[in-house]
Amino acid sequence: MIEGTLQQRVDELFKSALSDTINQAELEHFHHLLQRCQEQLHQPMRVAIVGLIKAGKSTMMNALLGEEVVATGNVEATFNVNFLRYGDRSSLLVHFKNGRSPEPKSFAELAALTLRPDSHRNYLLSIKYIEVIYPNKILESFSLIDTPGLLSYYKDDSENTLQFLQLHGQELTEITQSEAQGADAVLYLFSHSLATEDKQTVEMFQGPAVGQATPINAIGVLTKVDSYWSDPNASEPIDAGNRICQRLSSHPQIRNILYTIYPTCGLLAFGAQTLTKDEWQILTRLAQSLPEERMHKLIKDVRRFCDREYPDVPIPPSQRQELFNRLGQYGIWLAYTLIRSGVNNQAQLTDELLKRSGIPQLRDLILSHFGHRSYLIKLGKVLQEIKVASFRYQQNLPVRQQKIIKNVAGLFEELEAQEHGFSELRVLRNYYDKKLDFDENEVKQMLEVTGEGGTSCGERLGLGELATIEQMLSVVKARIHYWQERASDYLISDTTSTNAAGVLTRSYERIFYRLQMAKQYLYF
Ligand SMILES: Nc1nc2c(ncn2[C@@H]2O[C@H](COP(=O)(O)OP(=O)(O)OP(=O)(O)O)[C@@H](O)[C@H]2O)c(=O)[nH]1
Ligand SMILES: [Mg+2]
């Protein structure tokens, strides 16, 4: 495996760098940094969820996990960074800003530590981040970081919240920015009402908040798309969301920093996955007792649906209000129509609602775009960190130690220059910057061979995992031939595209070499 051999080379490099820097007081910090970097490479990728206050970040986090782990709210805001990582048993570890040793807490205390009550504010302010260890399958693939909202004032903010933001908003924004920069990949969440001008959203993406986002490591997520629903005859809200996303993606300022923008209904996905039996029964009773026209009239007006008693509606207002909080207007309407059109059990309803929320597609996108390249993305981040640190630590050191750091940094730089995966990432970057003149089929092959659909030879060739060696050899030979010609197409194509074609030829040659080795191993 390409990744496997790269990992082995990287591990070897760390081993020698760590032994060169061990037991030397002057190099202690650099040694620890190397240790931390090496550990990081063996951890799942860290994906941060970032966005303005109340963009729906915590709800999205729970929707991705399929259960309620972090607290959400209309008034209270996420106060501290929550770093969720996989563990067999749920627990918390509170990390402090002043270097005080981390404090274990029970999982039940998370909400109190996350939200923004007045009572223990000083304690909350002393927290750097909360490590949440939790047994959820998705955390085996990547760790998720829920961040406080970037500074903005929300129309429903209480006086208390506004005061808080004046005092601490800037600090929270800075924490979130540094968290986004520390993560391997970032989801940028934002909402955009149908009345919002695109210009406003585009401007938001120009601020320092987006830091070092590139289409390789950042995806935009349009949230609360269910709020576009109004009329049963209009198109599905996710289609309206898609149109907005496409429009926004066509702005060069956005194209340069985000891989894509994806529409989602986080609340609906979360509600669907955590639907209770009581809620299923309430929805069924509504579907059985109210004709469509009546139900639509009722749900169209939130106050009417949540507050008033009606003789023909068998569910009391308090329960309707709770249902509204859990699924939103569109979610309730969708569940109602699904049940009326034949969905007759709770599991099926969950499935159907989830499908229309955009969340399973977002999960897949995260896995294919970030997941299959996760080692390379993490390595890129780590190499950058080592480069910056080696420059900083070299200052004011005796010549001998300076030399050791220079030597270690040099070896890591050499690795970066030689590693073919980084050349592939540069090709992708050029593609996202619209610098390549590849046609549709060439783009498809480029995405495949660089690992968008998986990193096995078959997947890189677009043949899936089950292809035989002979099938793969035949395809790879044709591809090498094609891309070699493409790389020497100087008359028609520009240098960036021909160079990219050269990199892709090399990608196919490497697959060819691996297949030859596999064949020899099988037959001799
Ligand atoms: N209609 C609708 N409401 C949503 C959706 N996602 C979140 N909300 C609501 O928006 C409010 C804020 O949601 P949170 O998930 O707490 O937002 P957040 O970005 O984490 O907020 P902060 O941590 O305060 O910055 C809550 O009342 C949610 O119920 C959605 O997809 N649709
Ligand atoms: Mg939050």
List the helices and strands and how they pair.
Elements: H1 2-21, H2 28-42, E1 45-51, H3 57-65, E2 81-86, E3 91-96, E4 103-105, H4 110-114, H5 121-125, E5 127-134, H6 138-141, E6 142-146, H7 159-182, E7 185-190, H8 198-204, E8 218-222, H9 237-249, H10 252-255, E9 261-263, H11 266-273, H12 277-289, H13 292-300, H14 302-307, H15 317-340, H16 346-355, H17 359-370, H18 374-394, H19 399-418, H20 420-432, H21 440-449, H22 457-460, H23 469-487, H24 495-523
Parallel strand pairs: 1-6, 1-7, 2-5, 7-8, 8-9
Antiparallel strand pairs: 2-6, 3-4, 3-5
The structure holds guanosine-5'-triphosphate and magnesium ion.
The site of magnesium ion has 4 residues, from helix 3.
Task: Give an account of the 3D structure.
The chain is α/β, with parallel strands linked by helices and 524 residues long. It has 24 helices and 9 strands. Strands 4-3-5-2-6-1-7-8-9 form a 9-stranded mixed β-sheet, sandwiched between helices. α11 (266-273) runs antiparallel to α16 (346-355). The longest helix is centred in the last third of the chain and has 29 residues, at 495-523. Guanosine-5'-triphosphate (GTP) binds at residues 51, 53-59, 72-74, 77-78, 148-149, 223-224, 226-227, 265-267, 328.
